[in-house]
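Chain A, query sequence.
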Amino acid sequence: MASESVVSLNLCRPTLRGIGDMPPENSWFPVWMLCRHIQFSWDDEPDFLIFGDIGNGEHLLYPPQTIRIFVTGENCAANWNEADYALTHERIWSERHWRVPLWRHWYDTLYTKPVRDFSVVRERVDRFCNFIYSNARAMERIQFFEQLNQYKAVDSGGRLMNNVGGPVRDKRSYISRCKFTIAFENESHPGYATEKILEPLLMGSIPIYWGDPEIEEDFNPDCFVSVHRFKNFEGVVEEVIRIDQDESLWEKYVTAPIFRNGTLPEKLTDEAIIAFCERIFEERKSQIGLARKSIQKLQERLRRNTALEQMYEQSRRVTLKCTRSINRIFRER
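Chain A, predicted structure.
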């Protein structure tokens, strides 16, 4: 894309997790990464719209000619009736979709420096393993925690089953003190991988990972323990014990590069993601017909008006009921 080109873009903030009012260059990957390479104008009626997986249909209210780009780090698929293009965790690379797993949000190719020096790691590690979670619905990691805890005490530093006197304040700092990290996703799905595996790798802790069964396509299998290699949790615990009792093996895991050959997978590089997005910006090709988008916008407006009418009617009924009750009280006095 020519350096003098300016792309008209906006973020549908109510649909994007966690960005609040922060500026785009500090918001959602790949937005902050694209901002380093492409000049954007942030317009109320943009040519392109980035939207996410929450909200209440706000992305449907933009002009029909606006091209919608869906982004998510969650384990949910794009709705192709509403998204022209998508960046999700699915291992699909096509005209309309590119894979950008959530862990990429935490890996900045310019500034992220993994700690892989064993002498540094060995000096600061004083804990066996950590388990830092708050979600009690993911039973697999709870079960594994209980099994590994029978071998040696595992520090539960989140709100879930906390055993260290309260939630840890600095997660990464705590992880850096632990030889192992229980790195289980909320659920297992091909391609779905979050910061749970990346954070311990960056801090020199060995992740015990469960989630994406194809995770070894992203990361070097020599630097973490993949639960998916084993038939059951008992086999995983045996492997962890083997590493824990052999310092040379521990060092081998810690010093292994986190990516195969020490480099990001080609399709996950900044360059690959930029190329996919630049093509969208250059071609300016909507994949959803303008008529359909116009109908979606009209339907969303009608839905909202109906909802407002229902809220008004409910409020009117409550007010009337309260008024009658107050009048009855005064009459009885």
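The chain has two domains: 6-106+268-320, 118-263. The mean pLDDT is 93.
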